[in-house]
Structures are given as C-alpha cells and as structure tokens.
Amino acid sequence: MPPQHASAPLTHNVFFLRTMTLSAMLATWLICAHWAQVEHLPTPAEVFAAIIDQTQSGELFYHVTITLLRVLVSFFLALFIGAAIGIAMGRNQRINAALDDMLIIFLNIPALVVIILCYIWFGLNEVAAITAVAINKIPLVVTIMREAARTIDQKLIDVAQVYRLSTAKKLTKVYLPQLYPSFMAASRSGLSLIWKIVLVVELLGRSNGVGFKLHSYFQLFDIASILAYTSVFVAIVLIIDVAIIRPTEKYANRWRLT
To answer: What's the number of CA atoms in the CB half-sphere (13 Å) around residue 120?
Structure first.
C-alpha cells in the first residue's frame, strides 16, 4: 500500500494538468481568433469585455441566477425521482418488467418534443419548464441507477440479515456505499445535461434566463455576448463540480481507500 504522503504530489500534478489543459484551450481560441480575423469569432479579450459590460448592467447576474435556480430544482427532482425508480427496477424483477418498455420509450422521445408538449399542456410557466427538464433527465438517471442496483453484492446483504441489522443500517452500511459511485456519475452527467435542456426551455418559452438572452443575441449576431453568457455559466457549473460534486464523491468513496 503506497504511503499516505504520496497523495500530495498526485494532487499537485492533477491541478497542474488541469491548468495546462484549460490554458491550451484558451491559447487555441486566441490563435484561431487572431488567425481568422472575422467578426463572428471574437477574441477572449472581447468576450471578457462583454462579461464586464453585462455584469455592470446587472443583466448577467439576473439571467444567470434565474437559469441556475431552474437547473438546481430540475436537477434534484430528476436525480431523486430517477434514483428511486432505478433502484426499485434493479432490485425487483416485476417492477423492472413493468417499467422497462416505458423506460425505453422515454429514453428515445426527443427533448424538444417533451418541452413543446409541456408548454402546450401546462402553459408557458415555470411548472412546465421544470417538468419538461426533469422528464428529459429522469430516464437516464433511472438507467444508471438500475444497473448499479443490479450489481449490489448479495453476500453483503445476506451478512446484514444474519446480523439482523436495522433497515437504516442496511441502507447506510450496505446499499449506499455500493450505489454512491453510480449516484455521483448520475449527478455529474445530470448537471451537464440539465443546464443544456434548460437553455432550450428558456429559448422556446421563457422571458428570462440565459437561454432567452442567447436567443436575443443570436438575432443580433452578437457572438461576443453569446460566448460571454456561455462562459460564465460553464464556469459556474465547473465550480459546482469542483467545490461540491468532487469532494462529495471523494468522501463517499473514502471506504475504498482504507
């Protein structure tokens, strides 16, 4: 087993590699913008200037906050509803048989169709927007968590039954440690997918949010502002991943390192 102090150089190397990758992406963007010399490919400096301008006006903060709230509500709804259904399908063959065809159907219905139908049925409001986003994400979470539930070690469950562990201890000591990796995978993929769907929802039927602003700037061919809003929201999602999802994933998997 490697010494514990070896994790420090590894952490440093990972940070260095991530920094170099992001720097390379930024340098490539800068080179392409200067080489192309076209109006529709602004430089990073022009995009940064647009971010400053939108921040000072208050527009950026307002619309990004609205979109972020929609993303978070949809994210938690889809994650917990999908996880509950997926685990039930993975652990119960009858439930799986009853819902399997329905799962395939929802996995293959285009997101745009779901969004349009929700707006028609519920109106152009927040309920329709959140519902459309959650419905589009739930089937993927169900699929991930169903496969995770199927791989739960039955021997550990048998041991828990022999020792007559309570339901709460079975959940926290047997089931959850084996489901954590898939749950975190569903969280990471869910966050990246949901905010993209939210933008489409806002573009089609809301009067605020990042998607609404992107549509407005598309009509004006304002590429710098489009990239400004996109860059800020991507940065926020990256911060959420680094500050919340990764530490949670590391904490949940600490038992694997002992």
So the answer is: 6
Amino acid at 180: Y
**pTM of the full structure:** 0.77
Of 201, 186, 183, nearest to 70 by C-alpha is 201
Mean pLDDT of the chain: 82
**What's residue 25's pLDDT?**
80
Residues for the chain: how many in total? Answer: 258
Quick one: angle between helices 223-240 and 59-91, nearest 10?
A: 50
Of 30, 23, 63, 66, the C-alpha closest to 225 is 63
On the CB side of 68, CA atoms within 13 Å amount to 17
Q: Using the predicted structure, report yes or no on whether residue 11 has a pLDDT greater than 80.
A: no
Which tokens in the block code for residue 240?
């959420």
Q: Is residue 111 a contact partner of residue 51, using CB atoms and an 8 Å limit?
A: no
Max Cα-Cα span within the chain: 72
Q: What is the pLDDT of residue 70?
A: 92
d(CA 184, CA 63): 28
Most confident of 90-99, 154-163, 243-252: 90-99
Q: Is 165 helix (H, G, I), strand (E, B) or coil?
A: coil
Ordered by where they begin, the domains of the chain are 44-257 (1.10.3720.10)
Above 80 in pLDDT, residue 49? yes
Q: Is the pLDDT of residue 3 over 70?
A: no
